[in-house]
Amino acid sequence: MTETMSDPEALRTELLGRVEAKKASSSTPGDDKKQLPMVMELSSSTEIASLGTALSSGIDEAKIAQLQQAVEFRHEIAQAQIDWIKEKNNAISRAVMAITPYLEESAAAQLAIAEESRETLNKLMDGIKSLDLYIGKDVVVNTIREGESAPPHIPLTFVQRKLAVDEETAVFLDIGEWFDFEKLPLFFHALNNHPGLVEQIFPSQRCVVCMTTTRRYIDYQDRWANWELNAKNQTVFLMVRDGERLFQVYSGVESHLGAHTLFPTTDEQGNIFRGIDGSQVTFNDVSYTDKLKAHEMVALHYYRFLILCCGLDHRLKLFGEFYDPQDRLSFVSMAFQEKYCRFIYDHDGTGLLDDPDAKVRPSIEEYITQANSHLRSGSRVFCEWRAVCTPNTAPGVVKVDTGTSYRSYYFTADFINDEGMAVAFTRNNEICVEVPVKKDIYRRTRANDVREFNAKVSLTNFQRDPWDDACSVGFLCLDAVKADDLDYYIHSRSSRKNFMYYIKLFKRLSAVLRAEEEQEKPYRQKLIRALVDGNIGTKTNRAEIVDKTVITWRADKKGQPLSEGIDNEKSWKALLGMMDLIAWRGLSHREAAVEMAIFRGSKPLRLIVTTNARLALYVTPTAEERDDRVEKHKWAMLLTFKMSAKGLTLDSSKPALLSKNSVCETTLYEWPEANEWKGLKSVFSSFHEKQRAFEYIETGKEDLRKLSPANPSEFEAGVREWMTAYCEMNDYRKTGGQVQQPRLMIPVGIYINRGDWQYIYVTTESEAAGYFYHNSSERLKKELYQEYVSRFAHPEGKLERLETRGNRLALGMTNRTPDIGMFCADRNVEMDSVNYGPLSYSAYSQLQRIENRLFFVLAEAERGLHRRIYIADNLKSDNGEFIIDKLLGSSHLQVQSAVDVFEVILPKSLSEGPLPVIKSSGEIYRIHHWFDICPKGAEANISLSNIEAPVNKVTRHSFDSREAAIMHILMQKETVKKSVSGDRSNTPEGVVERWY
Q1: How far is the C-alpha of 111 from the C-alpha of 89, rounded, in Å?
Q2: DSSP string, 406-464
Q3: Which of 27, 136, 923, 937 is 20 to 30 A removed from 992 (C-alpha atoms)?
Q4: Is 197 in contact with 169 (CB distance < 8 Å)?
Q5: Structural domain boundaries of the chain?
Q6: 762-773 mean pLDDT
Q7: Which residues contact 613 (CB under 8 A, 6 or more apart)?
Q8: How far apart are CA 330 and CA 279, in angstroms?
Q9: Band of the pLDDT at 50, cuts 50, 70, 90?
Q10: Prediction pTM value
C-alpha cells in the first residue's frame, strides 16, 4: 500500500483500472448504447481554471458539458481511491493485528484526504452550473421598448437601491392599493408613454436597476393566495436601459432574487463597493452551497450577478456598445469595471443620487402634523369626510352602533362628496367645519324627498383610530402647505416608500394648489412690480417675500382669494405694508424693539409682522403680568408698535401664546429664549378667560351668606332667587312633562384635569327647596310651600316631601354657570361629583362641613400629576384656613354631642395570637380592625362585649362632635365604611356606629 501511494503512476494505473472495470460491470449484455470514452487526459480547454479563464476561452452548452464530464471523471477517480484505501486497510488489519493502531491511523489519514478531494470536486460541479447564467439558461429577457442605443462613451451604470414598481409608477399614474404583479403591463405602458418615468428610474442612459413589484403586503382574503401571490409580488427582476431601448430580465437564481440591493452597501462590506474582480473568482466561489455564512451569501449574489451581466452582453449586446472590442473577454475583471462601469450607491445615502433634503425635511407624518398645527378659525382645510366624521366629531350625522358594526358607528346621512375643501370656524371653543350631506325623507302620505343640509364637524375632537391603517389623513390644513413641498414628497423615493395613499392625495392637492397659483399669477406679478417700483428687496428674494405675504394674508382672511385683497384698497395697503416690513424695514427696527422690551423688564422672544402690517414683538411677562394660579403661566406678552419718522412707539400690549409656527404672522427674528415659551398650552382658551374665571369664583362669598339664616335679609333674598328660578324653569321653559327643580350653584373654586377645567360649586344633595324650607322662618316656609306646590297637578304629600328633604350641602363641578342669580334654570345642565379618592359615598356623605369634604378633595387632587384645585382667595383667612362653613353658619349642621371613639385591633392570623370568635355562635370574627363611635364616657370593653378575643388592643379617643370623630377615623384609614344593619359587623348594643 505504501509503495503504491508513493508512486503516482502506479496509483493512477490502479485507479484507472478500477474505474474501467466498474464501468464494464455496469453495462448490461446486449446494450447497444455507446459509452463515452474514458477521459485519460484533460485538454487545456477543459482544465478546471478560474471564472475569468473560462469566460475568456468561450463558453457554450457543449463546453459546460465537457467541464461537467471532466469533473465527473475526477469524482470517479477520487471514489476509486477511497474504495482502494478501504480494501488495503482491511487486508492489512487482518494480517497484522499487532500493529493495527498504527496502520489504521495511517490509512484513516489517507482516507480523509481522499474524502476532502471528493467534496471539493462536488463543489466544483455545483459552481460550473452557475455558467448557465452566462449562456442564458432559465434567463428571460422581455423587450419593453426598442429604439436607438446610448452613445458609446456612456459607461454602464449599476444602481444600488432596489426600487418598487408601484412606488415609481404612482408618480405618473393613479394606481390603487391593489396594484400587484398582474398590473405590470401598466408599468411597461407608462414607460413607453412617460419619458419622465424613464428618467426617474434610470439615472443614466446605459443603466441596470433592480426592481420588485411592491413592498406592500396585500391581503387577498385567502391564506394560500396570500402566500403565493405576495411571493410573486416580491419577485425581483432587473430593468435595463440602453438609450431608448428598455428591457426586463428575469433570472432563476434565488440568491440574487432575494437581495435587498443590487450590490453591497457600505455596512455590508465595510467600505464603498467598487466592483468585484471576477477574473480571480473560481468555480468554488459560485457554487450552489446549501449552507453559507452571511457574508459568503452576500458575495455569492454578486458573483452570479456578474456572470449574468457578462452573458447578457456577450449573447444579446443588451447594454449596447460601450467598451473597446478587445476588452470583450475581460468583462468580469476589475480593470474592465473600473474603466467602463459606474456604481451608484444611493441606498447608503452617500452617493450622488442621495437626497440631501431628506435629512432636513420632516417625514410625511411629521409634515402633516406640522401643517395641521396651523389649524385655526379661518383656515382652509381639506377633509376626507368618512374618515373625519365620527360620533365624537359629527354627532348630527354619525351615531353609535350598539350592534356588531365593524366601526361601532353608522352614518345617518350620505355625504354629497367623499372629500372636499372647507373653511374652519370656532364654535363652543372647538374648531369646526361644515360638510354638505343629504338625507332621504320617507313619508307615508306624500312623495319621498331628499333633504340637503350642512352638518357640523369638530376637528378639535378628531382622533385617528390606532387600528386604522395609513389610508386616510382625516384632514389637512392647507394654510402653510405649498405645491412645491407636495411635489417634493411625490418625487422623493424615501417618502414614497410604503406611502402610496399619500402620493395620490398629494398629487390631487398639488394640482389644486398649482391651479390656484396660476389664477394668482397676475396678482403676484403686480405685487412683485410694486416691490420693484419701490426698490424693495432683490431680484432673487422678491418672489419669496410675496409668497410669505400672501400666505399670512390669506390665513388671516379665512381663505379669501388674493384677487379680493388686490382689488380692495385697504387690503392692498396692508399687503404693501407687510411686504415692506418683511423685506427690510422690520429688521431695521429690531434694536429699538429690543430696547423697549428691556426697559419694561422683559426679554425679547420673537419679532414678527402681523397681518395688518404692524411690527410686533413677543417678550417674556414681568412678575406683575404673570398668573401662576392653578397652573404655571403660559402666555408671553405681545407688544405692537407704531412706526413713524421718529422711530418706534408702543401701541398696545396683550398676553398671547407663542406658537411653534403660525401662518398668521411672519417671523423676522427669533431669540433662543423663545424655545422655553413656544408651544405652551393652557387649559383656558385665553388669558382673559382665566381672569374671568378667577373673578367669578370670588363672587361666591356673597352668595354663601345667602344660605345662612343668621343673615335674615340675605337669606330671604336667596329664597326669592329660588322662587324666580323655579317660576322661570317651569313656566317659560320646556319641562318635559315634569316639575323641574332649579339647581343651586355657588362657585368656590376651580378644578383642572389635563386639558379640561371646571368650576367647583357648593350645591345641595337634594332639592334646594328642602334646604331653604328647613332653615326658613314660619312666614317664609308658608310662602315657599305655596310656590313649591303650585306647579304640581297633585299637591298631596308635597309638604311631607319638603319636610323630609335633607338640608345637607355638597360639592359639585361643571363648566357651566348659573343663569338666574345663584341658581341654574337649565334642566339639561349636569354636575359631576368631585373626586374624594378612596373614600366611599357612605363615608364622605356623613361629613356635613364643606371644609372637611374639601380636605379629602384637595388631598386626592394633589395625588394626580395633572390635577389641581384652587379655592377662591376670599374664602380663606389670613392664616390660609377656609372660612366657608363660617359664612354658612350652622344652618347645614346638625346638633351633635361629644363622643368617644374606640379603635380595636385583633389578630389576623394564628401567628399573632388566638383568632377572635363571636360568643353567641362560636364563629370566627372576620373583622380585625375597626372603629366604634360611642356616647361620651362609654365603658372600654363595650366594643368586645359580644366577641371572645384573648389578644386585643383597644384605644379610646374623645371628641367634641360626631363630625370630628368621623374625620379622625377617615384620616386614620380612608378605605373604611360605615356599618349598616344586617351586615357582618355584629355591632353590640351601646355602640352608635361601627366603621371598618
Answers
A1: 10
A2: SSSEEESSEESSSEEEEE-EEETTEEEEEEEEEEEE--SSS--EEEEEEEEEESTT---
A3: 923
A4: yes
A5: 2-26+36-129, 138-352, 358-515, 589-682, 726-888, 899-995
A6: 91
A7: 573, 574, 575, 576, 577, 578, 580, 581
A8: 7
A9: low
A10: 0.68
